[in-house]
Amino acid sequence: MDFTKEINAYYDREKAAIDRLDRKELNAAMNALLEAYERGATIYVFGNGGSSATASHMVCDFDKGTCYDLPKKFHFVCLNDNIPVMMAIANDDSFENVFVYQLEDRLKKDDLVLAISGSGNSHNVIKAIDYAKKVGCKIIGMTGYDGGKLAKAADYQLHVPADDMQITEDLHMGFDHMIMQIFWKYLAAKNGQQAIYKINK
Asked: CA-to-CA distance for 185 and 125, rounded, in angstroms?
């Protein structure tokens, strides 16, 4: 089978979505992340399905990748990473509360919430966002499609203008890597260091 036509079509759709990204919105969200870093705030990140994998990956990239040689670190916490806690909440209470329960009595006004939902309408994500709004902390919404309820509630947007979940999730990971690489170089230069990525080969 020759899938060249389908391959080209997929990447053409992805490139079209990249071209439609709102760079000003991305920049505003990046500055919110940087300000949270500078004030030592905790950044809570979470999502369902593929979005949960993106959330967990962001913790790795920001806590280790961006700040590996720096004295000051990002304080990212992924609410998806403790599976026993999530399963206990889902089993004993409800899956709708798996995120909000973990934020209750922990989330502070100066913290930052980064919620990921391709549709923007995941019930457990929106419930956590409603709680964050009551606390008074700022919210970054990482979404696709029309952004849904999350885009309406969020203070900052990392939005993919695409009606395709896989392209949305591709670009969500792209946001992570783009921001990580820009911050890594910016913070290294700010600390008088050269940004050299260290990997074991």
From this structure: 32
Q: In the chain, what percentage of residues exceed pLDDT 70?
A: 96
Look at the pTM and tell me if it is higher than 0.90: yes
Domain limits at 96? 22-188
Distances in Å between the Cα of 143 and the Cα atoms of 124, 148, 173 are 15, 8, 12
For the chain, the first-to-last Cα distance in angstroms comes to: 36
Per-residue pLDDT of 10-39, as tens digits, reads 999 999 999 999 999 999 999 999 999 999
Give the total number of structural domains in the chain: 1
Q: Are strands 112-117 and 42-47 parallel, antiparallel or unpaired?
A: parallel
Neighbours of 118 (CB within 10 A): 27
Q: Coil, helix or strand for 78?
A: strand
Q: What is the CATH number of the domain that holds 26?
A: 3.40.50.10490
